[in-house]
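Incident log, structure service

09:12 report received: a user says their structure output differs between two submissions of the same chain.
09:20 pulled the input from the user's history:
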Amino acid sequence: MKKIVLLGSYVFIGLSMFSFASAADLTNICDSGNMKSIEGILNWATCLLSRTVVPLLFALAVVAFIWGVIQYYLNPGNEEKRKKGKDFIVGGLIALFIMTAMWGIVAIFTGTFGLTNTMPQLPQ
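09:34 re-ran on a clean worker, output below:
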């Protein structure tokens, strides 16, 4: 019974993630209309990284952590699968910690030095 409740809760969490992802408007994430200059290309690449790649990496780390928890608790008799589950749990936690720490360091630098999230204009 415990395994069924645990598995059901993970299915519910997974479906919740898909509903949040489908609620976002993914068609116009980054404007690629100004790709004629280096500034436009850098703005587009930065937007693409910050709005798609970084959330994808966070999602993958969370999925790895959840997969490790599932493997750990659903295989009490198989020590090899429990060890793999522990490895996924530790790897997911380390990835989440590093990404969150980097996010915090960037926020500290931008707040401390008064940096903005815009490209400087070059003199013409």
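09:41 both user submissions now match this output. Likely a transient worker issue. Closing.
09:42 reviewer note: Residues 65 and 93 are 7 Å apart (CA to CA). Residues 58-114 form one domain.
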